[in-house]
Amino acid sequence: MLKFVLLVCLVLTVTQAVKYHKSKLQFAQKRSLMAKRQARICGENQFMCTSGECLPSMWTCDAQADCLDGSDEAECDCACRGEHKFQCKNGNCIPRSFVCDMFNDCGDGSDEVDCLCDPVTQFQCPGGRCIPIQWRCDGDDDCGDFTDEVGCPALHPDDCRDRMTLRGCLLMNDTSLPICLDDDLGFKYCRKFCKHCTVNPDE
């Protein structure tokens, strides 16, 4: 009886060892097949996305997701590389298209420094940041040092004109809190538009 039990144990052990070896062999073959498949599908200087597409290798880690699943931007180091990237002073990486777009995308404002502003539509702050021209003299510190509010003419209470553009007044009035319903703001920024003039401009 003992011999029979030992024989059964030996057969089971051998069977498990064969299964394990077969499974390990199949895994190695599958991995080799996947590597060959990737090499066959994507060229030598290409990156295969997890979602299946092939991209030029230089498109990886350029702060622009080119794969459908974004896998070309996964596991990237913090160094910016590629023409589509911009290195912020604080170490962050942003797409180059975000530079000089009037938004602080870096978090330290370094993407808005030394920008060439359009003198017709923009105002240049001393730090180099460009802001929309209608933000000048609007009562808000948009430059961060109040330079966009320096040298602004004060409106006399009898002066019937707006400090904002007509478009600006239209946009501010088309919100959940219309500017024309706020007597103080309406009088300060959109006096003529909101009909808050103290005198009739037609007289």
TrEMBL record:
Entry coiled-coil feature ranges: none
Organism: Pomacea canaliculata
UniProt-recorded name of the protein: Uncharacterized protein
Keywords, alphabetical: Disulfide bond, Glycoprotein, Membrane, Receptor, Repeat, Signal, Transmembrane, Transmembrane helix
InterPro entries: LDL_receptor-like_sf, LDLR-related, LDLR_class-A_CS, LDrepeatLR_classA_rpt
GO cellular component terms listed in the entry, alphabetical order: plasma membrane; receptor complex
Main location per the UniProt record: membrane
Compartments reported by the entry: Membrane
Paired cysteines (S-S): 42-54, 49-67, 61-76, 88-106, 100-115, 125-143, 137-152
Membrane-related topology note: Single-pass membrane protein
Signal peptide: 1-17
Keyword Amino-acid biosynthesis included in the entry's annotation: no
